[in-house]
Design goal:
Organism: Morella rubra
Radius of gyration: 31 Å
Number of domains: 3
Biased composition (Acidic residues): 619-634
Region (Disordered): 608-634
Protein name: GRPD C-terminal domain-containing protein
Pfam families: GRDP-like, GRDP_C
Structural class: alpha+beta
Number of strands: 25
Distance between the termini: 70 Å
Number of helices: 18
Strand content: 15-25%
Length: 773
């Protein structure tokens, strides 16, 4: 192929390989609708995980008694031999015990046959309306059969003595499955297209287990296959019938809480590739090696489901969607004949749209001829459109000393329509590339506030242009203004801080500082209405305000928010930010249902994994490291909400008040978080008498060109990192916030020439007195 500068883009061979086209896989019979069943099980496991009362020891013991002594005899009587299971569902505590019991098929079958001389099945009820009917019907039968036994578990959680355990084996099963949902928390797990692909891969593993299990020590299921297996097991009669000839084979499959070795994973991958000529791993279906079988590697993005998006009322906010992407590469055998070219050829990955500065490269020598190798695993915003993989050769001039030989493009929309959410293409007849994705799901919002021009009481920027439009009527009042940008650089809100009163006319009065109690903060929804260049008016709709108030004795600053909340800030020493403390309460709630925790907490916690040198063993170095870690936490505050479902708290937002950057779940109000961010910054700046967040900057600083390196648009999974990749833009922003957001701002302020603010805006003294005095 020619190495000309205008290298042609090759569409490649799109084989569209699919497991559904393999007769042996299609022949596998599954007697339950696994897609619908898995979707229901995801919701069920989430409900169980959020029901903290269900995991109290006394509740579990009572649930086991109710299941063992009441429910199983009842459902056995309702089950007529050789018929389908009765259309009834027990209360949550009993259903949870039942579910856990079925995940040990051998033990469950022995239990049923010993007590009832038959295997008790579970009804296939997947519709919410039918579930409600089945639960109501069960309650009627229960009340009639057990008039002295309450239908719901009424265990007193404050009871000092735990009841006697009636079934130790069941207690062990329920206890070890308590954290099961934590293995499958990602929102895409309940998407239909994902579950259809997972069902086909599960059937493919059953085929391998039936035909080739003797060729490996144990088969290790990937996460998507594992969940389908658990779902199949949870319908015991269907599972027993479907796999009656494979019971011995399935004992060689690693179960959910067993740990696997690298050797076992490799053997599974080899068998899969040899059977289907596809990589075993895929987006949303990887194998995570765990040392103790509990928990999993922490992903760099937060995938947990949010039930609602309270920010849909703000028309200026557009949701952000993320998908997981995996790329695998396998060299063609013909490359062996040209091995002299391999050392100087490499694959380069770039996005179809956004993040043009992204530079991910892998040498062709990293890949094999006889097996699939993972090239990259990453998370991309749906707005990136897709990925382009280029085959390049060193020594050219088109791409920083290299030339592009050929390229292939994978668009998200094509992948989402493809079988198993996977596409394969060939590049330059040298390498086969398989790309897989998960369905895009809503991700946390990312917002940052950037300096903008001073505005007057009406919201118009202070400018000769506005004066001329207003026929030279004076512009009253002075407000520091900030523009809030989302992850894609779109203007969402305008934040304004009242600093000065009075008005300005040519040769007339100058603005003066207003009292502290009048220095209100307001948030307006929408973008600027520009009338000339960068001069314009703020949107009219005010969606949030914060008003200073007299703080209680033990606090230094207090604000009343339009949301009904009040926030208070305190500190012990003027010299340090480490002892900052916060209170956020609501007049309608006697108990605080939300807390502001200093630093990055819960899912936002960042552990510095730095190898210790021999010099770091002494106490002084450890103290220095501790101080460095505390310094990194400065500016971060985690907002945690407490509910009946989450009595231990759920972090719904992370804010950095120094940089005016926030990340929030869709269920958290963006206006509240922005108000908290700016009130803390204003209060602490006044306390420290320092411009901590560049509040005195009164011009829009030059941003990185849109699409050059969009923060949050591409996040590289740690398993794909190498020592040559150190860009903070490929990590979550809060891992190194100063590098992603802070350094550019500081550099711009020092690098740009001193700005001569116009007299009509007011002097620096006005804003210094209005903010830091």
């Amino acid at each position: 192929m020619s190495e000309s500068s205008n290298a042609s883009e090759i569409s490649g061979n799109m084989s569209g390989r699919s497991l559904s086209g393999i007769p042996e896989v299609e022949a596998i019979r599954v007697g339950v609708d696994l897609v619908s069943a898995a979707r229901r099980n995801i919701g069920f496991l989430r409900t169980v995980a959020e029901a903290q009362w269900l995991h109290e020891e006394s509740t579990v013991v009572e649930a086991i008694r109710r299941y063992d002594e009441l429910w199983m005899p009842l459902v056995s009587d309702l089950t007529v031999a050789a018929s389908t299971p009765p259309m009834v569902l027990p209360p949550l505590d009993i259903e949870w015990v039942w579910f856990c019991h079925t995940l040990n098929p051998v033990s469950y079958r022995q239990y049923c046959e010993l007590r009832f001389s038959k295997l008790i099945g579970k009804p296939a009820i997947f519709d919410e309306e039918n579930e409600e009917y089945a639960l109501m019907r069960c309650k009627e039968i229960w009340t009639r059969t057990y008039p002295s036994e309450p239908f719901e578990n009424e265990t007193d959680l404050d009871m000092p003595d735990v009841p006697t355990v009636t079934n130790e084996e069941l207690l062990m099963e329920v206890t070890r499955h308590r954290l099961l949902y934590s293995k499958f928390p990602e929102a895409y797990r309940s998407e239909i297209v994902y579950l259809i692909a997972a069902r086909q891969r599960y059937k493919a593993l059953l085929h391998i287990a039936q035909r080739f299990s003797d060729e490996c020590s144990r088969l290790v299921p990937a996460s998507d296959i594992l969940f389908m297996w658990l779902t199949h097991q949870s319908y015991p009669t269907a599972y027993a019938e479907d796999l009656k000839e494979m019971e011995g084979d399935m004992r060689k499959v690693v179960t959910v809480w067993e740990s696997a070795t690298e050797k076992e994973v490799k053997e599974t991958e080899i068998l899969w590739e040899r059977t289907f000529d596809q990589p075993y791993g895929k987006a949303g279906g990887v194998v995570v090696l765990e040392s103790n079988g509990v928990g999993s590697a922490k992903p760099p993005v937060y995938w947990e489901v949010s039930d609602t998006d309270v920010n849909t009322e703000y028309k200026s906010m557009l949701p952000r969607f993320l998908l997981e992407v995996c790329l695998f590469v396998k060299l063609n055998s013909r490359v062996k004949a040209n091995q002299q070219n391999v050392p100087c050829e490499f694959l380069h990955l770039r996005m179809l749209r956004c993040h043009r500065e992204l530079k991910l490269e892998k040498s062709i020598s990293n890949f094999h001829y006889d097996s699939w190798q993972k090239a990259w695993r990453l998370y991309c915003e749906f707005g990136t459109k897709g990925v382009v993989v280029e085959l390049c050769r060193l020594g050219g001039h088109c791409f920083k000393g290299s030339s592009v030989l050929a390229s292939v493009t994978f668009q998200w929309n094509d992948l989402l329509r493809a079988p198993s959410l996977t596409l394969e293409r060939e590049v330059a007849q040298q390498a086969r590339i398989v790309v897989s994705v998960t369905p895009p799901v809503q991700a946390p919002y990312l917002l940052k506030s950037v300096p903008d021009r001073v505005t007057d009481d009406s919201g118009a920027m202070i400018s000769d242009v506005i004066l001329k439009i207003n026929r030279y009527r004076p512009q009253e009042g002075r407000w520091l203004s900030r523009t809030v940008l989302d992850h894609a650089g779109r203007e969402c809100f305008v934040v304004r801080i009242r600093v000065g009163g009075g008005f300005w006319r040519r040769g007339g009065e100058t603005p003066s500082v207003v009292k502290w109690e009048d220095r209100i903060i307001e948030i307006r929804e929408g973008s600027w209405s520009y009338v000339a260049g960068s001069i314009g008016r703020a949107p009219e709709k005010v969606v949030g305000t914060a008003t200073p108030k007299e703080p209680p004795e033990q606090w230094k600053a207090a604000w009343s928010l339009s949301t009904g909340d009040e926030v208070m800030i305190g500190w012990e020493s003027y010299a340090s930010l480490r002892d900052l403390r916060f209170y956020l309460g609501n007049q309608m709630s006697p108990e605080p249902l939300v807390k502001l925790l200093k630093g990055r907490k819960m899912q936002y916690q960042v552990k510095n994994i730095k190898p210790k040198s021999k010099h770091e063993e002494n106490q002084n170095v450890e103290e220095e490291q501790r101080e460095e870690d505390e310094e990194e936490e400065e500016g971060f505050v985690t907002l945690v909400r407490y509910t009946e479902e989450n009595p231990n708290g759920r972090a719904t937002a992370l804010l950095n008040w120094k940089l005016l950057v926030v990340e929030l779940l869709p269920e958290e109000d963006a206006v509240l978080v922005l108000l908290l961010c700016i009130t803390i910054l204003v209060s602490v700046s006044k306390m420290k008498k320092e411009d901590l967040g560049c509040l005195l900057t009164r011009r829009r600083l030059k941003e990185a060109k849109l699409g050059a390196r969009d923060w949050g648009s591409v996040i590289l999974h740690p398993s794909s990192c190498s020592t040559s990749i150190s860009s903070p833009y490929l990590q979550p922003w809060y891992w190194d916030a100063n590098a992603v957001v802070g350094s550019d701002r500081a550099d711009q302020i020092t690098r740009q020439p001193v700005v001569n603010y116009s007299p009509m805006e007011g002097s620096d003294v006005l804003y210094r007195r209005g903010i830091i005095s």
